[in-house]
Amino acid sequence: MVKTLSKHPLIADAMEGLRPSMIASQPRVLARIRKLGTPRAKNPKPLKSAVERFHHLVFYHAAKVTTDFDNLEHIMTMVRKQPPRFTLKKWDLSGDRWLEFQYTLHLVTLVGAVDRTLIVVNAVLGLGLAPPDCTERLLLRHAQIEGTRLSAAIKDLSRDVQPTRNHRNLDVHQKDLPPFHEIVGWEDYDWLPMCALVGKDDEVLIPPAWLQKGFRYAGQLLSLRMQKERTRLKNRVWRIFDLLVPIARRRAAAFAQTGGWRLTWR
To answer: Among 95, 109, 198, 220, which lies 20 to 30 A Cα-Cα from 150?
Structure first.
């Protein structure tokens, strides 16, 4: 069964908690659209109740995680279906540069999704950490997490993402990825960028149509690897969301009963 993060109970509960305020604000938003042409307000009014603010905080950060994983799916599609030759030529790109660009985007987005998952943990538990401080090291030392199943789930997530994080750091900070044929998993891949480079000087070693087929085959191999990474980490994130659901429901019930005396850092 395909797991869709946007339909996870953690997000569904947050949306259900926000439904009354969304219904109440609908006439005001429609009037603003008719008058100004935009639903955005210059000085939006804060949500009144603590439980609504809690649901909004959880939904805000969890939705970013789901968006990241949706974007990863789009990136894999772009890798599998390489643009036509005339499009690449118009953009002044070769097939190898296209694949390398998409792989960099994959690394950055995947690591970002994991980092945002830790921010969701902070939001649900109300730890009060700023987003830059929501790291594995700090979360695992917190009394609410240490020694729990959530602690083990965070460790598993951090362990699985570490190879991807290392590649991301090498690429973003040093522009020094391993040889791309190792990433693609095809030893003969290095011939393609060389032929593409020589082809710019009108010394065609491989017919352009064959070269395009070679890059598309490399893209299919690369997308399979990216799919495995995405699926493995998505399952880890799903597990963390599962563990957060009962905690979020208990906190929402407590806010509804007591009204809450403070809101965690947003």
So the answer is: 109
